[in-house]
Amino acid sequence: MEVDATSEDIYELKRKGELDKERLERKIKEAIKKNIRKYLTEESIIAGDGQKKIKIPIKGLELPEFRYGKEHEGLGAGRGSLGEGDAIGTVRGRGQKGGQGTAEHIYEEEVTIDELVEIAFEELGLPNLEEKSSKKISVKSEVFEDIRKSGPISRLDAKRTIKMNMKRNALAGKAEIKNIIRDDLRFKSFSEKYEYESNALIVAMMDVSGSMTEHKKYLVRMTLWWIKKYLERQYDGLEFLFIIHDTRAQIVDEKLFFATTTGGGTEISSAFALALKTIERNYVASEWNIYPFYFSDGENFDYDNAKAVELANKLISYSKMFYYGQVDSGGFDTFDEIIKREVKEPDKLVVSILKEEKDIVVAIENFLKVNKKGLELKNSKR
Questions:
Q1: Which domain holds residue 219?
Q2: Predicted confidence (pLDDT) per residue in 320-375, tens digit
Q3: Torsion angle, alpha carbons of 182, 187, 192, 193, to 10
Q4: How crowded is the C-beta side of 39, counted as CA atoms within 13 Å?
Q5: Pairing with 341, which of 25, 145, 167, 250 sits 20 to 30 Å away (CA)?
Q6: Are residues 185 and 242 in the same domain?
Q7: Full-prediction pTM beyond 0.90?
Q8: Same domain, 339 and 240
């Protein structure tokens, strides 16, 4: 069969495919943006990595299809044994079996979690840094390796040069410093060494006491997961410290942090004490930018409130900002009211209250829009 197709026809066909692809991508973005709050509260995304795919339903999308015939002859027209436009797929001579009329079909497109995150933050309008900051600060230093007979004058080793001159003169009969020649010169040899220093720490703390119901934990997990995703998107490899607590605090890995069950009483001071102990031991505050995020329902033992506030103020003094998220329990004089009343550096404290799913987005925006330019990452001690 001969195909009569010009290069112009082939170009138009290729261009049509590109336009269809662009249109599909645009439709996917529109669908995600329209339902962004739904995806932000979908807990199943926590379990997967960035390449895990989820299905996005897209209404009103006309999928590409083949149409036969030439445009001026009528697309898809043909003549059957019963005349033009035979009915097909009928049962006992009656059409539209199993439903009447036409229905709007929904097309499902798979996108990765990373793609979803990118579109989500674009829609939320969170600060997007022009240049991605780095966790690692590269510090160049010179390491002494050897002594050589040649090198730049700036690396001349005067002490060894004089020693060689005296040694040569001694062999000639008199040990003295005299007539330094080229062969006496000695130079230090160095090589460049690069060290990398971390300079930003995110401390994620969560109350897992018995009063933290599954719904409360769900609100906390979703908020913290999206905050972590945002920070990782803006910065290369931040340091994260995960702490859970009831009356006792412990450092855990990320997986356990998001999966731990609840139980026990509440001593908020235990989390702050462990965070402070770890920071003072491993992260010198003058060399690190520290950002604690603490989440609780605010139901603390009365005897622990004074100690918790004292430790919170000390932790805030080490930090650039302190973020407190409370899953509202409806109680009286909960910890959010106490810390707002007694904090010594109120400009460093950001408080968000979460009661239901819609508050997750509000909390994310509240926490991450505080610094319009994103987290401040400065060089460490050098």
A1: 199-368
A2: 889 999 997 666 779 999 999 999 999 999 999 999 888 888 888 888 765 444 44
A3: 160
A4: 25
A5: 250
A6: no
A7: no
A8: yes
